Amino acid sequence: MRKIWEFFDTMDELVYVSDMDNYDLVYMNQKALRTYGFHSLEEIVKKKCHEVTRHCSVPCSMCNNQELRPGHFKEWCHYDSILGRQMMFKDTMIKEDGKKYRMKIAVDVGKQEQWDSMMNLETKINEGIRIALQQETPSQTLEVLLAHMGKALDCERTYIFERNERGCDDNTYEWVASGVTPEKDNLQNLPAEVCANWYQNFRIGRHIVIKKLEDIRESDPLQYENLKRQNIRSLVVVPLYNEGEVIGFYGIDNPPEKLLDYVSDMLQIMAHFIISSLKQRNLIQKLKEMSYCDQLTQIGNRHAMIEYINNLQNGQSLGIVYCDVTGLKQTNDQKGHDAGDKLLINACECLKKSFGEYGLFRVGGDELLAICAGIGEEALFQGVKQLKNNLRDKSVHMAVGSIWEKDSFNGVNQLIAEAEKRMYRDKAAYYKKYGVDRRHSLEVGMRAKS
C-alpha cells in the first residue's frame, strides 16, 4: 500500500518526510531529491533531515515538531540560505503504522506581493477547513469546503467526481458561483471514455491543469466537447486516492489565470481532507445500511419500517400486504437452517417481483411486510395475485393478508394490524386444509385471537 505522501511525488514543490522520533528522512519527492542533489530514495536512507536541508549536525533550532498534529498544517515563512530563496513552509504530522512523521512542503513564494496574495488565500482556505470540520455530517463538511474554496479562489465552480460501480463517473458534490449554471444533474454516470486520459495521468501520480481549453481540442476531443458544453475555459483537477487506487477526482473551473499554478499545489494538499470526509461518509452509510437492512433477505428491518412510516405523506392511498412463510420451523428442524434461510430468501424474491418498488420489510423471523404508498386498489390486489403465482412457481407458500385504504395517513399501524389478522386467517385456513401438529395449531389459533 502506498504511503499518503507518495501522492506528492510529481508535485512542483519540495516535499519531504522525516521520522519525528529520530529525524531520519523517509521520503523526498522528485523535486526535493533533485534540489538537494540526490537521484533516488535509497540515497537518503538513514540521513537526518537537518543534515540534508540545513547542513546541521543537530536538529534545527526552529524545529516545530511539538506544535504539529494530524490534519492541520503549521505555516511559516523563512529565508532559506541553503536554497537562497524566500520560502513558505507547510508542516503537518502524519500517523502511519503507529509511528509519527513530519511532512514538510516548501513553496517558493518569490516576490513579496505574491507572498501576500498567497497568505491571504491560505487564511481563507484554512478558515474554510475550520468551519467545514464543524459540520454535523461528512457531506455537509464537503459542501462547505467546496463553497469556501470556490469563493477564496474566485472560480466559477468547484466539484467532486466519484467513480461508480459501473466504472463511470458521478458528480456527487458541486458548488457554483452566482450566475453560473449548475452542472451536477447533467454529469451523472459520465462514460468512462470521457475522462480516460485523465485517469491515465492519475494512475502515475499526475494531476490535470488546462490553462486554455483549446489546447486539448485535438489531443482529447471527448473531454474537449464535455468541457466546452459547460463553458469551461480553464481548470485544475486533482485525483483522489484510497489505498493507492484512484476513486475519483475533484477540482475547480475557470480560476484567475495568475492562480492556476498555485491552485494545483493547494488542491493536492487538501485532497487529504476530501478523502477523509468521503471515508467517513461511506462508513456512516454502511453502518446505517447495516442497522436498517435485514442481512439475510436484504430488505428493510423493523427500524427501516418505522422510518418509512414516519416519512409517509398525508393524503396518500396505502396498501398493506402482510405475509408469513409457512413451514419455516419444520424446514429448520428437518433440513437445517441453511434450507430455512433459502426458503426465506425465495419467499422474499417473490415479494420483490410483485412489490419491489415499494417498502419491503422483514418484521419477524418468518414475517414479511409490503407497505405500498400511493398504490391504487386494483394494482394492490393484482400484485397480491401475482405474488401467489410467483410463490407457486417457486414451490413456496406464504399466508397473505392484504388491505387498501384511499387515505390512511393517521391509521397506518391500524391497517398493518388488520392486514396481520387477515394473514392469520389465511394461515389457519391453510393448516386446516393441509394439516399440522396440534401444538402448532393451538399456537396459530392463540396468535390469531390476540
Topology:
Blueprint lengths: L13 E6 L5 E4 L1 H6 L13 H5 L20 E7 L4 E12 L2 E10 L3 H21 L5 H15 L4 E7 L5 E8 L19 H7 L5 E3 L10 H9 L5 E8 L2 E9 L6 H33 L9 H9 L7 E8 L2 H8 L1 H19 L3 E4 L4 E7 L3 H17 L4 E8 L6 H23 L3 H12 L1
Number of helices, counting only DSSP H or I runs of 4 residues or more: 13
In the residues, how many domains can be counted? 3
Question: How big is the Rg?
Answer: 31 Å
Structural class: alpha+beta
What sequence of helices (H) and strands (E) makes up the elements? Answer: EEHHEEEHHEEHEHEEHHEHHEEHEHH
Largest β-sheet summary: 5 strands, antiparallel
CATH topology description of the largest domain: Beta-Lactamase
CATH class term of the largest domain? Alpha Beta
What CATH architecture label of the largest domain applies?
Answer: 2-Layer Sandwich
User: Strands of the biggest beta sheet: in what spatial order?
Assistant: 2-1-5-4-3
How many β-strands, per DSSP?
Answer: 14
Helicity level = 40-55%
Strand content: 15-25%
Q: CATH superfamily of the largest domain, please?
A: GAF domain
Query: Which whole number gives the mean pLDDT?
Result: 86
Q: How far do the termini sit from each other?
A: 59 Å
* Uncertain ranges: 437-450
Bulk shape: elongated
